[in-house]
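LOG
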Amino acid sequence: MFHIKKLDIFIAKQFGMLFAGTFFISLFVLMMQFLWRYVDELIGKGLSLEVLGQFFWYMSLMMVPQALPLAILLSSLISYGNLGESSELTAIKSAGISLIQSFRGLIVISFLVALGSFFFQNNVGPSAQKHIAQLLISMKQKSPELEIPEGIFYDGIPQTNLYVEKKDLKTGHLYNIMVYRMTDSYEDQAIILADSGMLQSTAEKKHLVLNLWNGEWFENMRSQEMGNSASVPYRRETFAHKHIVLDFDGDFNLTDMAGISNDARTKSISKITHDKDSLIHVYDSVGRAYYKDAQTVYYPAPRLQRAQLKEAEKIASGKNFNIDTLFSKLTPDQRRMAVDQALSTVQQEVSDLEFKSMITSDGDKLIRQHDIETINKFTLALTCLIFFFIGAPLGAIIRKGGLGVPIIVSVIVFIIYYILDNTGYRMARQGDWAIWFGKGLSPAVLIPMAIFFTYKANNDSTVFNADMYRNMLMKMLGLRIQRSIAGKEVIINNPDYAKDADALSRMSQQIAEYSRSHNLKSPPNIIKVFFRYHADHTVENINDELENIIEDLGNTRNKVIMTELNKYPVLAVKAHTRPFDRKWLNILAALIVPAGIFFYFRMWRFRLRLNRDLRTIVSCNETITNEIHQLLGHTAIAKEQVTTNKQ
């Protein structure tokens, strides 16, 4: 049974305070990111404080589910970073409490936050998404002179389509303008072309004034009562300046929500399920209707098929029947008409199929969006738990609190999550990936990360030890690791100088014999290197003995000996014999020619380096041995003087 302990309360208090602060910081950052996307809809529109307040309120509600995982990640990372930095985590572990046991209280809190996130997405989030979409559409319809894009038709003005090739943002002038005015009937449409113009709102915000310069006005006149309409089908007017008043209510008015009713983001799971069934039923009906049409055109009824076959057989029964021969007998005009008719039929069929494909593709996209949003409500809530099992172990491993390293690490993790989730969402929405694969991409990557970090933190692994990675990299690249032996302030055991001097002398003799029997300057034998490997125990023994002597002499206060100890090289005892420890890797490296050549010359380089290192060891041995003999001689003389004085 779960019992609430003082440790759980202590950690939960620290986490709760940090979670509250990081949540509002994360929410603010996400709101600013969203705001930059739609800043053009807000600036210069004359929106009231009430409208702006509604916009920011619904925007904050919409961003809450995304801010919760980021807040859990950052607060858990800082909490356990603070515990590790202040050695409180060490005290917890020394009391027999494992890291996983210290997670208990925060796991419960994170689970409750995940449930709250799911409830929020299912009940509050859709309403906020619906209202924010309504506000954005309404804002775009206010002050349309600021919204007119370049290079495409703008239909935000009632009964008018406006095309602008170029727009000057400083002066507000529009260049190369094309205006399509649509009234009650098709016959009364008008087309206006102008070199430049300017669109402005009136003071009461009820009309738009369009000033045009150097243009032409084309207008159909068929609906007007004219005596001879056939001779005057339209009216054309050339003008130097034209002043046109368009009806437009420039005040802020909320648009109807019917235009966003198909957006799956504005629906709860029950609503998504109901609407998805309706969409599937509707588009299945459309698909069946299209299928029947195709059967009628391309696969007619059996009776009609038999009649067509009999007619074709009757035509083909003619002697030496050839369709090319029939086509060549036609007159040029008839041939042209036949080709044009066939081409027109094909183009009509292609256009019809493209139109039907567009309708069915839109239906598939709507259904996919409903499936994506259903899964998204679960995955976003699950992310709260995943981020906790990433943030808390990382904090325990890094052992750095505050807002420095934790923020950097959390930003990196969140960027990885955002890229994976956004990529999967877009690919699934377009139909390029399966929905389960697209929405499961980020959890599939982050869950193993969470398990790995939790395992490493629970076993006190040094995952982020910079020295470990630096030494590993230097070893892989064959770079030297320099010794750094400093004098000790307090020496418990003095070195055994006589024993160490004898050992160094024997080592020098052993190195001399090894150098005579092994020509390290010569290139290595390829067969022995890659296929018949034999360990070089002599170098391994020399290295082990040297390290023991260095450890013993490290207790000296003699500056000469200490200087020579730091000159000893760190021996690579295996790199000069073969590339890898495993035999099959050596054989594989030999078979892969470019890799084998690289490893062969790398090993030769290590042989030459070993030859230099052995000479350096002999030189240092001689210097230290001489210094020890002088030191022991001075010590013996001092003892004799003390004995003489006592006598």
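LOG (cont.) second protein
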Amino acid sequence: MPCELLVQCPDGQIKTVPLAGSRLAVGRSSGVELSFPDDAGLSRQHFAFEADGDAWTIQDLGSKNGTYVNNIPLKARLILKPGDRITAGHLAIVYSPPDNDPNAGVVVFEGAESTSPTTSTVVTSLEGAVTAQTLAIGRGGEKASVPLQALLKYGEQLSQYPSLDEMLPATLELAIQAVNAQRGVLMLLEGEHLVAKAHKGEGFRISTAVRDKVVNEKSSILVRDAQLDDAFKGRMSIVEQKVHTMMAVPLQTQDHIIGLLYLDSPFILREFTKDDLSLLTLMANVAAFRIDNARLVEIEQAERIMKRDLSQAAEIQMGMLPKKAPEIPGLDLSGYNLACRTVGGDYYDFFPYPGGRVGLALGDVSGKGMPASLMMMGLHARVHVLAEDPGNLGAFMARINKATCAQCPSNRFITFFFVLLDGETGEMTFANAGHNPPIVVRADGSAEMLEGGGPVLGILPIAPYSEMNGRLGRGDMIVLYSDGVTEATNVAYDEFGEERFIEVLKRHRAEPSNDIVQAVTRALAEFTAGAPQADDITLVVARRL
């Protein structure tokens, strides 16, 4: 879409002229592209627009009466900026390139030459509006009570709209009715930007100076007659929209600005008054508190829904973990999981096989909360399918990794350990994908780590994994765990660590597996007393009887 000019012709008509080609000259001569033969204030060839890459420039062509850009005499070739206003003779032109603002159909903010109060402008504040309305009410009589009645009615009617979707249009409509305006727009601050939330009418062009004075200085502004006010009378947007009288007030809660309310009237039926400005300022203050409260209610409701959803997700997730360990001849098994949030990313499981064998699995998804929980459930599904017949555990782990890589976000990964244990012979075969090496505690009190393995799941689709072997003797045990155990910290940020963990396991090695789990969790609770749980804690203990 090409850039365009908004032209106010000498006869008062408004027209849009697209800027095409490389040059467009303006003057009285019939030989120029934009000719105004009846404008005696123009020279035959007065000034010209010329393309300069993606921009446009303007240059005076030696005119008799001069060319002005934003009320400044044009002395040399000038690159135009959006909203620049060019005047020459009886002609006024606004340079207006395409607007990519998402709110361009409702509100455009444009520059203004001045924001200083003139005879046509009134500036007040919330404190000034309160004082003015109090004095007006105190003078007595039926007319003096009108603002108070309007305010009371406004607050009462707004209370009927509990949701923001209903409240915002109602707020605007009631304000328009209260001051007999014809158009308006209500905008709320989202970050640093004002976003139109309700409007009656289209194509609002609001001075950036007015916007900044309202939002930054908490000022309420009334322009009684925009056609006479020095800051507005020459603006094409005012002329084009035939705006006559306008008001802009802050949506203010105490010292906090949450938005802006703008009203105007394009026709000279009734000018806004200072009392209108005071009333609108107070109405905007009432509305701001209502809007803020409605926002808080919506946030609280969203939090309740999220809490409920998380609670249900936690129930689903806990249902995917084993309710109890299977009974395998020659083995004593226990498992434990405690998420640091409502849902977690740790996973453990048992897989009984014929012949007295059992598979033990433990995985840890990077991160916490709902994203980790969703990935954990995906891991659970993949392992359950592939673990029906694991075969060689190196190949088994490679298949899990390939399936994980296909669905794993780039900033996530999973550590995973799987071991097949024979309760009769104590023989172990295992594979490790970047997980903490499990600890084997022997009956004589010695301990060792099951080192070795491949990379974490979800990073390299063709990563190699190998099957390794070991053996548990009578009275030996193997302990699988997540790093939430060894990396648990106390209030001084000291880690529980592998040494403390192994010492607890050694002391309780002859006890039932469930008692060993309780001993570890009790030691963790004593060590971290007063410090929040930073990660999910998961344990799997298998003792050979």
